[in-house]
Design a protein that fits this description.
binds magnesium ion; 5-stranded mixed β-sheet; 371 residues; binds adenosine-5'-diphosphate; alpha+beta; Heat Shock Protein 90; 63% helix; Helix Hairpins
Length: 371
């Protein structure tokens, strides 16, 4: 059933592509054929003129006057003292007609060709985009399976250990910490999937409230602090207290959490470093940057990172956790608040900076009151 539905529109698109290709071939043939006809007509009339020349020569040797000759063979003229040739005016007229026809077929055919080729380009691009999305979706399915199964397996192992080994308090603490981490990972995965579903259903409640950006960033940084410390990553928040954006609070939290988690992971992968969160008022809104000294990415990947399921690099060799939903959610959630999101990096190994901006601050902004 599912396969039939996926196959349907694709087959239709391929059918139309074939139709367009066929029409293109027809137009090309039409142009060629019309040109050939125009040439043939031209040659036929020219041959006719040449018979007039023959006739004129014959009549002149019979002693007819030029006036009589021209009445019977109007497309000839004298050539030198005694010769006859096709009149230059007639030849010029013939040539003008031929060029006129060629030009008309060229324009008409060219127009159709342009329309057909443009349609084919659009269709091919749509087909290609669909194919890459389908491929990413498959990768995503594999990643989700892995993301759900590995923490579950790890939890099972911890439970088994506790039940069978009856570990002492120290080991028990270790196991509890590991189970916490596994649960975190599961919770993160599940909420990303649910958030994506709610963003895409289009009926997400768009509640906008003043959201204190600095407080939110500090709370999230504190949540991630143990993981950051373990990976040798320092998280700093540089934001004026009281700076608020008009945003969907749970959306803003998800945005910031995803950016921080990504930055933490990228910096940990570089062997440690620094993540800096900066927020400041910009125009009537708030701009927030999450900058890290992590592994970065090739600059040309910047806008693709926000695509659904997109993760740079070779799928098969990719080992780190992740699904490619995080930044997609960031982008969608920011748009729901009429804001935007952007990514920058000077290149692999050279850190990254993610910027988001909310367009409005609440009417009674505490930051402004203080100013
Ligand atoms: N701070 C960052 N530094 C370098 N690369 C990043 C950073 N944030 C995101 N990326 C790249 O963007 C990809 C997509 O991120 P995301 O949508 O959050 O998916 P996920 O985290 O599940 O891989 C990541 O796999 C990573 O390659
Ligand atoms: Mg992520």
């Amino acid at each position: 059933m599912r396969r039939a539905r996926r196959f349907g529109p694709r087959a239709l698109e391929l059918f139309f592509l074939a139709l367009l290709a066929f029409s293109t071939a027809q137009v090309v043939w039409w142009i060629y054929d019309q040109n050939r006809l125009a040439e043939a007509d031209h040659d036929r009339v020219e041959a006719l003129y040449r018979t007039e020349v023959e006739l004129a020569r014959h009549r002149l040797t019979e002693g007819a006057t030029w006036e009589q000759v021209l009445a019977e063979a109007p497309h000839v003229e004298p050539d030198g003292a005694s010769g006859v040739r096709v009149s230059t005016a007639a030849l010029a007229e013939l040539e003008r007609e031929r060029l006129g026809r060629l030009r008309r077929y060229g324009w008409e055919g060219g127009f159709f060709l342009a329309v057909l080729l443009a349609s084919m380009v659009v269709l091919i691009r749509a087909l290609r985009d669909e194919a890459t999305l389908a491929r990413r979706q498959q990768n995503f399915a594999a990643a989700v399976t892995h993301e759900l199964k590995s923490p579950l397996a790890s939890l099972q192992l911890s439970v088994d250990t506790i039940r069978l080994r009856r570990p002492g308090p120290e080991r028990l603490d270790e196991l509890a910490a590991r189970m916490d981490a596994d649960l975190d990972r599961l919770e993160g995965m599940v909420s990303k999937i649910l958030d994506t579903a709610s963003v895409e259903s289009g009926n997400r409640r768009r509640e906008r409230e003043p959201v204190e950006i600095a407080a939110l960033a500090r709370a999230l940084a504190a949540e991630l602090a143990p993981r950051a410390a373990a990976a040798g990553v320092e998280i700093a928040v540089e934001a004026p207290s009281g700076l608020a954006a008009l945003a969907d609070p749970s959306g803003a939290r998800t945005v910031l959490r995803n950016l921080l988690e990504n930055a933490l992971r990228a910096t940990a992968a570089a062997g440690g470093g620094r993540v800096t969160v900066r927020a400041r008022p910009e125009g009537p809104g708030v701009r927030l940057e999450v900058e890290d000294t992590g592994v970065g990415f090739p600059p040309e990947e910047a806008s693709k990172l926000f695509l659904k399921f997109y993760r740079p690099g070779d799928e098969l060799r990719r080992s780190g956790p992740g699904t490619g939903l995080g930044l997609y959610l960031v982008d969608r959630l920011m748009r729901l608040d009429d804001g935007w999101a952007a990514a920058e990096s000077a290149g692999a190994g050279r850190g990254a900076r993610f910027t988001v901006a909310w367009p409005t601050r609440p009417a009674r902004d505490p930051a402004e009151e203080g100013a």
